[in-house]
Design brief:
Blueprint lengths: L14 E4 L2 E4 L25 H11 L6 E5 L6 H14 L7 E5 L11 H11 L11 H17 L5 E7 L16 E6 L11 E4 L5 H15 L5 H4 L1 H10 L4 H13 L5 H9 L4 H4 L1 E4 L2 E4 H10 L3 H9 L8 E2 H8 L6 H9 L4 E2 L6 E3 L2 H13 L1 H4 L1 H23 L14 H24 L3 H17 L3 H16 L4 H17 L4 H15 L3 H17 L3 H18 L2 H17 L3 H18 L2 H17 L3 H18 L2 H17 L6 H15 L2 H17 L3 H17 L3 H17 L3 H17 L3 H19 L11
Parallel strand pairs: 3-6, 3-7, 4-5, 5-6
Antiparallel strand pairs: 1-2, 8-9, 10-12, 11-12
Length: 796
């Protein structure tokens, strides 16, 4: 039997038993008043947080975890979500008036509220006077837990909102012992530690729509009749994007607009477009105290240990949208040992791994600008220039190896220990945004030779695999950099490279640039360059439908390459010349020339360009009425493409084969090909490709007699090609839709559709299809005047 313990209280003194001990406090003036419902006001609007709010409410319900940590980047809206959700829990009657709020100021320069201070503050909220507090921190913790246990025994739940915690130590002793109670913590850190079992709820930036809505709401709360949100929705959306959809940045931008009613949203969007001054523009002077994103980030940055801060700064050397662990190790010189530091930055909400486990690390756009500022300040001590050179050299080497493996300009390398073609292509596809950005970065930092070398390795892949806009962006960067060197030889090549990218983009500027390049090559007596410029110039003429000019330019290029004995270039010119002849109606000559090009490429082992020639040959055979031969050739190309893993060209080949089969009036085997192509185009985000497939799907439904499905497919094709900005494709889709309307006996609508298609073809200079559409429109008008059985099938 244990020892008996006795105590007596006089007057207003109280006795509390904690862990078996009796503690007696001196008489006071009675219980202190409790801080009932000590919550700040809920935010006026919690925009774009329906999902996290619903999840958080579920976690606060009975059966949820005792501790929830809402974690995220400074300014992402953690406190707003926590306070709003706490108010919602009160409305639901879950905690009565037992809801308490603590501001821990965990990132304040003075260190904020300590763990013992937080417990003491909670005891005050619970009605304990300072004169009644136990002297020791352990005693105060024991009393705090006893009071919560008493609530639990009485069937009363308690919610504690601990806002802005900077470390587990600030909240560890606040963890309620009873499962009924909840501790809701907000922190920039994902608070995890041994013995601290908190459920982490990460909070990300807003989606685009809610971000713009929050910005508009900030303006309209100040000026309810402000016309700018309704008048300039696109500018507001642009501001939201420049703010990285971060609620704090949006609030500052809203305050800037509200504080200057004469400032247009478009003008603020232009100010924010300049990356270097964006953080400064997102600062609001509040009574002489700057409030903004930079100040918020300063507090997080100040908490970083020196080694993590260095990693944080050096990550911005990588110009891509994310950074592989391997590159982070290269930049910092830490190799594989860098991952724990990257993980620490994730816990501090200064970095994310997307997706988790991928080894790819991403920084918020505004945070990246901040890290870049700090990186430039500490460039010398970090070894930033040396890290930049090593990083770019690695990219050049890796890209050169990938090109060699692909065999773009020579038979591909293969052998034990070497990556496969598919692996090389996958690496290029994955790192393409980084590689293109690295060319611009090298050019902007006066590393012109590095920019040119990397672009040389990258350009054939971008060109052959259809990444036209990135090729164009890269070529413009290189040309701008080369012009600064004043070297005429490099200038001719750079101008020609830009002309090549423009030509692929079917931009009318291509002819001007290629004519300039041709003059520069001739001035330098560079026959190789002259041949290349002529070949590309011929292609630009063909795009402009100047077919005879194209043939002459290509013939001159062919003569030069044969003179130089350059078989690879000769094969490339032959296929271009064959296309000219096809457009000039000389189909058999075009087919023969395609076959000569194909033979050369097979001799050279260039599988990539072999696919291009097989595709062109199949088209020529089909145009000559030899459709079965054409399909057989395309099937050859299909097999090579599947082997290479070139998904986009695979989709185009599948669509072309399907269209040819449909032109014979057969839908056999068409559906599977089109569905596979549609999956590829959708996955790649290629709206132009999707639109073309939808045209062919509509034709397939026509052949099968399902006009309703055909109508849906062709309407979808019009929308896709319109959004893709493809005028010729849009005209083809409108023509297909008109044909379907005719099949549905909606002749007046069909006639109008054919006229719109004719106008579209006229705008792109396709007189042949324009004339055909005018004839079809006339036929539909005639059908509308003389009702009769009318069947019209569109054949592309």
């Amino acid at each position: 039997m244990g020892n008996e313990q006795w105590a007596r209280a006089d007057g207003n003194a109280r006795i509390t038993q904690v862990a078996g001990d009796h503690i007696t406090y001196a008489a006071g003036a009675g219980p202190a008043p409790r801080a009932l419902l000590g919550l700040p006001d809920a935010p006026p609007a919690l925009v774009g947080r329906d999902g996290p709010a619903k999840e958080l409410v579920g976690l606060l319900a009975e059966g949820g975890p005792p501790v929830v940590v809402v974690a995220g980047l400074a300014g992402v809206g953690k406190s707003a979500l926590a306070v709003s959700t706490a108010h919602r829990a009160v409305e639901l009657g879950w905690f009565g008036d037992r809801v308490f709020f603590l501001s821990l100021r965990g990132y304040a320069p003075d260190g904020g509220v300590s763990g013992p201070q937080a417990v003491q503050e909670m005891l005050r909220h619970l009605g304990i006077r300072d004169t009644d507090m136990p002297e020791s921190p352990d005693g105060r913790v024991a009393l705090y837990r006893a009071r919560l246990a008493a609530f639990a025994q009485a069937g009363q739940r308690v919610l504690i909102v601990a806002d802005d915690a900077g470390a587990v130590g600030q909240v560890r002793d606040l963890v309620p012992a009873a499962d009924a109670h909840r501790l809701l913590v907000t922190s920039r850190h994902r608070l995890v530690a041994p013995g601290f079992a908190g459920r982490v709820l990460p909070l990300d930036e807003l989606a685009e729509g809610p971000a713009a809505e929050l910005l508009a709401d900030a303006v309209l709360r100040a000026w309810p009749d402000d016309p700018r949100p309704a008048r300039e929705p696109e500018a507001l959306a642009g501001i939201a994007r420049r703010c990285g959809r971060l609620p704090l940045a949006l609030a500052v931008a809203g305050a800037v607009l509200a504080g200057d009613p004469g400032l247009s949203a478009g003008e603020l969007a232009r100010r924010l477009a300049e990356a270097r001054s964006r953080l400064e523009a997102l600062t609001f002077d509040e009574g002489g105290v700057p409030v903004g994103v930079r100040a918020a980030f300063d507090l997080s940055y100040a908490r970083l240990p020196a080694d993590q801060a260095r990693v944080f700064r050096l990550l911005t050397v990588n110009p891509g949208p994310d950074c592989r662990t391997e590159y982070a190790g290269l930049l910092t010189g830490e190799g594989e040992e860098v991952r724990p530091k990257l993980a620490a930055l994730v816990r501090a909400s200064l970095l994310t791994e997307q997706p988790v486990g991928s080894g790819r690390w991403r920084m918020h756009d505004l945070l990246r600008l901040y890290a870049l500022e700090r990186g430039e300040e500490c460039a010398e001590e970090d070894g930033r220039e040396e890290a930049t050179d090593a990083f770019l050299a690695n990219l050049v080497l890796s890209t050169g190896v990938a090109q060699e493996l692909l065999g773009v300009n020579s038979p591909g390398s293969s052998g034990p220990g070497l990556p496969s073609v598919a692996q090389a292509l996958d690496w290029l596809d994955t790192e393409r945004p980084l590689l293109v950005a690295a060319v611009g970065f090298a050019a902007d930092t006066c590393r012109v030779d590095t920019a040119v070398e990397l672009a040389d390795f990258l350009a054939p892949y971008l060109q052959l695999y259809g990444h036209t806009q990135e090729h164009l962006l890269m070529a413009r960067h290189v040309l701008a950099a080369v012009r600064t060197t004043g070297r005429p030889d490099g200038l001719a090549v750079a101008v020609c490279d830009l002309g090549s990218a423009l030509c692929q983009a079917q931009d009318s500027e291509a002819t001007e640039r290629l004519t300039e390049a041709l003059a520069l090559f001739r001035e330098a007596s560079d026959r190789e360059g002259e041949g290349r410029a002529l070949n590309l110039l011929g292609t630009s003429y063909r795009v402009a439908r100047r077919f005879e000019d194209a043939r002459q330019a290509h013939q001159q290029a062919l003569d030069i390459y044969r003179e130089l004995g350059n078989l690879h270039a000769e094969a490339a010119v032959l296929v271009a010349l064959a296309s000219d002849l096809q457009h000039l109606g000389q189909l058999e000559e075009a087919i023969a020339m395609h076959r000569r090009s194909l033979a050369l490429l097979r001799e050279l082992g260039d599988r990539h360009r072999e696919v291009i020639v097989l595709d062109a040959l199949g088209e020529a055979l089909s145009a000559a009425g030899r459709r079965e031969e054409g399909v057989a050739v395309w099937e050859e190309a299909l097999a090579i493409v599947r082997e290479l893993g070139y998904r986009t060209r695979l989709a185009w080949l599948l669509s072309g084969i399907a269209a040819t089969l449909l032109s014979t009036g057969s839908s056999h085997g068409v559906r599977a090909r089109l569905e596979e192509a549609l999956i590829v185009f959708t996955g790649e985000g290629d709206r132009h490709g999707e639109g073309v497939v939808m045209i062919n799907l509509g034709v397939m439904h026509q052949v099968e007699g399902d006009w309703k499905q055909a109508l849906e497919a062709h309407e979808r094709a019009c929308a896709l090609l319109d959004s893709a900005g493809d005028q010729a494709g849009r005209a083809a889709a409108v023509r297909a839709l008109a044909g379907t309307l005719g099949g549905l006996r909606r002749f007046a609508e069909a006639a109008e559709g054919f006229e719109r298609a004719a106008a579209g073809f006229a705008a792109v200079g396709d007189a042949e299809r324009e004339a055909k559409c005018r004839q079809e429109a006339a036929g539909m008008r005639e059908a509308a005047r003389r009702p009769r059985r009318w069947w019209h099938r569109f054949t592309r």
